[in-house]
Request: fold
Amino acid sequence: MTYELYYWPGIQGRGEYVRLAIEEAGADYADVARTDRGMSAMMRMMGGAEGTPPFAPPFLKAGKLVIGQTANILLYLGSRHGLAPKAEAGRLWIHQLQLTIADFVLEIHDTHHPLGPSLYYEDQRAPAKRRTEEFWKERVPKYLGYFERMIADRGGSFVTGRRLTYVDLSLFQIVAGLRYAFPKRMNRFERDIPQLIGLHDRIAQRSRIEAYLASKRRIPFNEDGIFRRYKALDI
Amino acid sequence: MTYELYYWPGIQGRGEYVRLAIEEAGADYADVARTDRGMSAMMRMMGGAEGTPPFAPPFLKAGKLVIGQTANILLYLGSRHGLAPKAEAGRLWIHQLQLTIADFVLEIHDTHHPLGPSLYYEDQRAPAKRRTEEFWKERVPKYLGYFERMIADRGGSFVTGRRLTYVDLSLFQIVAGLRYAFPKRMNRFERDIPQLIGLHDRIAQRSRIEAYLASKRRIPFNEDGIFRRYKALDI
Reply:
C-alpha cells in the first residue's frame, strides 16, 4: 500500500512528524499536495460530506482510511511499522508523550502568533516578543526538562529505553527546529539537555533519516512554518 | 475497578471531559486531588522516575496503568465503556475529533492568556482583547462550523450518527463553557449552530449527566478554569 500524505506544500509544519515516521519505516508514500493538482485534491477531501473529512492537514490516506491529527496518524503508523510498543500500556504511553509534544508545538507556534493564527506576525510583533520571553523562561525548561528526564531515567538510547519510537523522531524535529528558529537561545540552553541533544544526533545518523534529510523530500525550514527565525525573538 | 482521576481540585478544566465520560459510563471513580492529601499524591506521581509519569494533569489511574493527556484517557475509556466505536476506523475517527476539540480548548484558554500560561490575565488584558476578537471572528465559526456540519451531514442525534460517543459529551461541555464565558457573544452566535445546541440539550437531559450536573461532583465554572467570564472580553 502506498500512503497518501496531505499537508500544506511549502512547509514542514505538523506534516513533518508524519514524514519522519514514514521515512524511518521505509514505507511508500506520496506527498500529495506537493504534486500537480494535489492542493485541490486536499481541499476537496476536507470539504467532503461523506466519510471522515478532517478538520485540517495533515491527514493520511491509508487504503480506505482517512486519518487526521498528527498524533492520531502516528498512533496508526506506530503499530504498523514497529515504531511503538505493541501492548496497550506502551502504546498509550507513547501516544501520551506525542500529545505532549503536540502541545509544545502549539506553544512554539504561538511565540510568533500570540494573538492567533489568523493575523500576520507583523501585526503582533510586541506580544510575540513578550510571549517568546515567557516561552524560553518557563515553558521550554518545563517541556524539554520533562523529556530530558524521561531519557535519563530509562538509561537507554531512546525515550522508552532501548527501542526507537515515533516520539524519538518527533523530538529530533523539535531540537532541529528550535536550533533553526532560535540559534542563540538554543545554543545557551543546550547544556541543560545533553540527553536530548544526544538523541537528536543519533536520529540524524540513522541511514533512512540521513538520506531523507539530504533529499528534496525534506522541505527546508522557512518563515511560513512553525519554527521561524525572527531576529527580534532570538536574543 | 475504581478509577482514580487526578486533576487540579478547584476547576473543571481539562479534567471535565474525563469526568463527563466516566459519569455517563456509570463507572466508579475517585476525584483524588479533591480529597485529603490528594494534591500531594498527584504531585508525587508526576515527579516519579519509575513507570509513566505524566507531564500534567489530568491523568487517570486504571489498575496499574497511569494514562495522561485528556484525549488519550478518553481513547482508553471509550473502548471500555461503549463510548466509542469498536472497529479501528471508527476509533481513529472519534479520536481525531477529540483531538480537534483539544486544539479548540487550547485556543479558548489563549483568549485570556495570549502571552502564555505563566502570566496572569491581569498582565495581558490588551492582547487578550485582540485575541478574543480574532477568536470569535475566525476560529469559533471554523471549529464549531466543522462540528455543526458533522452532525448535520450524518442526520442523527450525535456526531457519529445514532450512537453517543465521548466526543458528544465534550461538545456539550464546549457549548456550556462558551455560554458561561461569553454569554453575549454566544447568544448571538447560537443561531448558526442549531445542531450543536440540540446536541447540548440532549446530553444535558441524559439521566446520569443530569444527576452529575446537579451534584457536588460538578465543580462550578469559575475564573481559574479554561472558560472564564471576563466582561471586557464579552461584547
About this structure: Chain B has nine helices and four strands. The CA atoms of residues 33 and 40 of chain B lie 8 Å apart. The first helix of chain B runs from residue 15 to 25. The interface with chain A takes residues 49-50, 52, 54-56, 64-65, 67-69, 71-72, 75-76, 89, 92-93, 95-96, 99-100, 102-103, 106-107, 110, 114-119, 127, 130-131, 134-135, 137-139, 143, 146, 149, 153 of chain B (CB under 8 Å).
